[in-house]
Each structure stands twice: as structure tokens, then as C-alpha cells.
Amino acid sequence: MKKLSVATFAEQAIARPETRLISVPALVSEIRAAVPECEHTDDELAHLISVIAVSRGLNLSFVRPVGFEVIG
Predict the structure, then answer these.
(1) d(CA 13, CA 31)
(2) What DSSP string describes the chain?
(3) CB distance 4 to 34 below 8 Å
């Protein structure tokens, strides 16, 4: 099985056609679920997500949705 990098996973998630607003906490949680051996901190992942999303002209949300549960 090919190992997926965290940056590639984030780029693919951000590139979804229906995505205009990126929930940073939700995507960090999604990355943690998909790449459990990820060595990056949540802050590092949030920074990576933010850089990719802003470079594509997308909006960011750092608010955790109601009922949001952190995985891990």
C-alpha cells in the first residue's frame, strides 16, 4: 500500500469541488483518522492546512462545530 503524505491528503481534501470554507479543526481530525502515524502536532497540521487553503483563495474556520469530537 502506498504511503500518503499529510500534505497530499490535505491538498486532496481542500481541492474537493464543494469546498469553499475549510474547517481547520475538522480537517485536522480527518487527517488524524486517515494518517494515524502522523508525527505532526495539531498546530503544525493547522498551519499546513491554512497555507494550502489560503493559497487557493479559500476561507478558513477555526471554530469547532457543535458536536465536534476530536479523534485520538
Answers:
(1) 9
(2) -PPPPHHHHHHHHHT-TT-SEEEHHHHHHHHHHH-TT--S-HHHHHHHHHHHHHHTT-EEE-SPPTT-----
(3) yes
C-alpha cell at 59: 476561507
Written as one letter, the residue type at 63 is: V
Torsion 59-63-68-69 (CA) sign: positive
Q: What pLDDT is recorded for position 3?
A: 67
Q: Which three cell numbers stand for residue 63?
A: 471554530
Q: Which set of grid coordinates corresponds to residue 30?
A: 480527518
pLDDT for the residue numbered 2: 58
Take residue 20 and report the three cell numbers written for it.
469553499
Residue 1 has pLDDT above 60, yes or no: no
